[in-house]
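Annotated sample (chain length 384).
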Amino acid sequence: MITPNSDYRLNPSRAIYVTGELNDALVAQLTPRILALQSQSRNPICVYINSPGGEPRCAEALLNLLRLSNQDIADPCRIITAVTVQAASAAADLLASGDYSIAFPKSTILHHGVRQFLGAPSTLESTGRLNERLRISNSIYAMQLAQKSEERFKFRFYSVRDEFASVREKKGDPNLSDHDCFVEVIQEKLSPDAKKTFDKAVKRAERYKALINSVAGGSGWSEAETPLQIQAIIIKAIVDFEVSGANSKETPDFRLGGMRRLADDFFLLNEYLTGNSDQKLEDWCGELGRLFLNPEQQIEVEGIADEAERLKRTVEINKPVLQPMLSFFIAMCHALQEGENELTATDAYWLGLVDEVVGENLWNLRLLYEFGEDPEEKAESHGE
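Output written by the structure step:
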């Protein structure tokens, strides 16, 4: 039996409609409606979206308004976002910002990198500065998307784990990692366009692994005393990696693009280190750890009396499983900031960018919170 829960349900009577370009005029138009809804109650506010995007600062302004407290210091209203037709660029970021995010079945979601329109002639100096700004901006937006979508992605990873056994059987490899199983499962569910984005994320995560293994194996870490010395060690390790036997054939001459490859690897490694902090990995292990323990491991962990030691052991067991998934998730968020990435509603669901697709039989948090045993079945199970 389903008991509707307003925290996960669309409600047109408590809604705003983000239609057209995200600009100052739209913010001004929607502000009175947002404030009126907040004054009426602290119930969820729905944000219906059909927008080609616009100014990111305007999307942020709407979010700031939606998340306002009041003079009684009440909690902000919960935000339920829904794309009805299109959510592109800044509108896609707005969609991902919802506490619960929904896509209508024929809608499209477009993520892409930051764009800059130049109104003046370009020079070597100006394009260099522009390249740096765009790279930094893309990285910032990627990490913001990661923050917004993290819980959805973790839920998606957990919800498809029942399919991993069939993947291992199909591949004839009972030791195939959870990460590799996840990649196989999700790839089969995506549209051709989404598969291209997914492949970019897979390759990016593989590059992370190769780089971090090379740098971790380098020397000089114990002698490094300043951030600059650490960066020098990283750069040397990347150069060694690029000219190694495994990569020398595909690495361009440093006079003909090799320096750009070196810079790309340096930023890629910093991207990895920023998103894959030890604390973040431990958080994932702590939150998901109990769900991934096999029966023997559950008995072992439950037999540890001290709570801190119990958590420590849970993290130790799950790090090898969850570290590749965290790396892949960060890689995916960065891949979405490169080029044009147009997704269907179900693509966005499988990538963890929305929680639910209206009318589709796809497992989601709403069902988890709304589903309950039917009264008649409950009575029978209790022998009444």
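Annotation: The chain has 15 helices and seven strands.
Annotation: The first strand starts at residue 15 and ends at 19.
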